[in-house]
Amino acid sequence: MDYLALIAYGILNMLFVLLVSPLFISLIKIVKAHAQKRKGPPLLQTYRSLAKLLKKETVYSSNSSWIMRATPLVNVAAVLVASLFVPMIIIPQSTDLVGNIILFLYLLAMAKFFMALSGLDAGSTFGGMGSSREMAISALIEPVVIVVFAAMAFAFKTINLPDMFRSALASNVLVDPVIILISISLFIVIIVESARVPVDNPETHLELTMIHEAMILEQSGKNLAMMELSSAMKQLLLMGVLINILVPWGLTADFTPQAILISLGAFLLKAVILAVIIGLFESSCAKSRLFRLPGLFAIALFLAIITLIIEVFA
Amino acid sequence: MLEFLFPLGLAAFFLAVILPLIGSKLGSSKATRQAALIGTIVACGAILAFALEIVFSNKSFSLLAYQITPQFQFSFLVDRLAAFFLALIAVVSMAVAIYSVPYVEHSEHEGRKNLIVSFMNIFIVSMVLVVASFTMFSFLFFWEIMALSSFLLVMVEFEKKETQKAGIFYFVMTHLSTLFLLFAFLFIYTVTGTFDMGQIRAEPLITSVAFVFLFLGFGIKAGIIPFHKWLPYAHPASPSNISALMSGVMIKVAVYGLIRFLLLLPMQTWWGILILAAGTTSAVLGVIYALKEHDIKRLLAYHSIENIGIILIGVGLYVIFSLAGFEAIAFLALAGALFHTLNHAIFKSLLFMTSGSIVNATGTRNIEEMGGLIKRMPKTALLFLIGAVSISALPPFNGFVSELMIFQAFFQSTVLANPFLEVILISSLAVFALTSALAAACFVKAFGITFLALPRSEEAKEAKESPKLMIIGPAILAALCVALGVLSLQLFSVLGFSFPLPNMLFIGALLSGFYVFTFAALREVASRRERIAETWGCGFPTQTSKMEYTASGFSEPIVTILKSIFRTQKKSERNYYDDKGVIFKDGKAEIHLMNFFEERLYMPVANIVRKVSLKVNNLQRGDVDLHVAYAFATIVVFLLIIWWFA
What we know:
The complex is a heterodimer. By secondary structure, chain A is mostly helical. Chain A has one domain (3-313). Helix content of chain A is 70%, strand content 1%. Chain A has helices at residues 3-35, 45-55, 66-83, 101-121, 125-156, 161-170, 177-193, 212-215, 221-246, 257-284, 293-313, and one strand spanning 58-61. The radius of gyration of chain A is 19 Å and the shape is globular. The model of chain A has no long low-confidence stretch (mean pLDDT 90). Chain B is mostly helical. Among the domains of chain B are: 562-594, no CATH class; 601-645. Chain B is built from 24 helices and 5 strands. In chain B, the strands form 2 sheets. A two-stranded antiparallel ribbon of chain B has the order 1-2. A two-stranded antiparallel ribbon of chain B has the order 4-5. In chain B, a hairpin with a 5-residue loop joins strand 1 and strand 2 (73-78). Chain B is globular, with a radius of gyration of 27 Å. At the A-B interface, strand 1, helix 3, helix 4, helix 5 and helix 9 of A face helix 15, helix 16, helix 20, strand 3 and helix 21 of B.
């Protein structure tokens, strides 16, 4: 096996996710602002906020423990490892070191586990509320995610994400109905996991509706920057899974500069379109009550199970 | 070497049983207790070395100890499967023995301390001998010793009402288990004419009957739903070192029994479906009940039910896949189940021991009265966190690897090409995923409410870190949680198995590498200024523990979403001064939690039994003549029966 190429892939992919992910946070904000006839923030605003947070002092609660200090680092580390699992522009050669889809999911779960603990650490009511709701929602979405992933594993005959992308690319069917069903469920998963309307509202602070923002309310300075960065990266990773399964066109397995540039351009274009769709979707619906959410998840679960059943009978 | 280690272990156990009992005669009973526990540690070391030798070399060891008649003999055969379970028993018992040295001294009664140590050793050695047994006769004999010794250990604080209830519950359930096993063994004996485990050959119908009895017997002992009720009673009532043994090890012995007999009997697909269904139900209901629980030891008891469910899911998949002819997937599922058995033994004992330390330090089992313990008991907190992370199946810890193996077996279920099985497997997969996520939610609650933020009671504020040995015991298991997770792939390859699993050593190294890298990068790039301030108290001058989120509050969203399972009934009544219902006078509200299985299953059965016994009671007048007449009548009836058949 060519380890050098694998390492090059790892570094490139990780840097890409690290550097590009904040862009889509601002982009979705801009789309939402335009939908409300506002101008919205500049495209580079998220980078500026992160830079500003890094320069600020970090405030810790006197109640909090080392969990509060470790959580941002655990989050970034877990998401960085997860970023090796989702090839964005180059598909690496087949390897069993990275790419296991269940491990990918549980790396994200690990980040979430520590984030929920840090929500309880400062002893504020808001943090606890956020943790409690986040864990409830993540428990309910989990069956959906696993069944969607199982459907993907069935459709592509592998449990390795890069291999899935490779066979999606090689497939000569332009639009496969099974993949469309999977994509709808995956889209719902993205909405849930990146804390968007109607599940959560990323814009509010100190409101009773918030979930993700409540958990990280006590984080500040560089720690807050790390939390924001890791959730931006997580969002891009999930978007990458959806894009490279539904429309893998342009994705490349060659290490030539030309192919990489084309692939980069293609991915950015597709991701911008997806971000616009997410923004429009968010603008078109209202935040729903917490106890209404199981209905939304049931739709996704239903579609995923239908996919599996089609797979079996086909 | 093997011939030497096994008897050495048994002899050391024998000493450890005897020493505390004669301790008071020898002078210092504290010294003899400690000597006995050192004996336990030596014994466990010997058994562990013995078991590991067999596991790694794949040899087997047999020993005929004693025979009453050629049919009724105590003979032992340790093959790789038995040795695996022996290693599990030995390693957990060793850690528990270390923990017990200071722990047993907490009791106020000198005599009881001696009894706990002595019975604990009987309990451990009986589990060792159950697993090592070759004949069903010796299996059942030591099974019953295991049941009785653990019952006595549950009853240590017998004067408490709660303990009495738990004890009776446990006694009845554990004997139902023994009874079903007795039925199964006698049934097999009458059909095959031998107690020898290796020689069970019979018709499918006959083995099915035997399987149902065995499944009930082992299922009750393992605590699968609906036979689980003894776990949440017995665990809080017994001392924590005993809970660690019962939950960590004893219920695994039942798993051993089930797997052992499944491998002996010719399997059928419906057995697999039954095991899978029972496993899925136990897993999801176990974790759902755990979420609602605020008694730390009951919470852990319900998680044992959940994890037994996960193990059974793996076993069920093994049966289904192996009958469909997919040996590789079947073996992956079975290995996942066995690995999860080991992992659960390790992290559950770790959690029970650390929660025992917390209960000792705070004097309560209610997590709503804890909080802030991470600052007061930092080492215990770290150990509990490792256990919590492992049981929540987060990478790269051991719980994750075993659940991953079961997930991967599920993911390959399309190969079955049987729509009926397919639908069952997909539903089970979805429920299994839900279970795993709910477990994480539950342990965020358990760790967060117990250890983080401000203390919620005076006792929690005054809590002190536990003695050194009560840290070292669990620490061994915590180290194993990490090692078994990170080195899983290497371990399997040493044992000669190759599973398509990710290399957790690589993932673990990456995770810690990125952690350190981010830390260092932040030190260089970001501002290093720090300030300690108070959490915002929502406008109040200072923030108190009353403002913290409670455990009930934490689980409220899930409880509300799943209210049909909890069967919560909220009743409220309002009285008004006027007839339009505007001016509120007074009212009352109540929340009724239904103990579904107790009210709908256990009590009706118990009532029927009671009614029948009352009828039978009429026959017994306490009159000697009458009883002699009964005995005479019985003999006559038997003679008539024998005459009839002859």
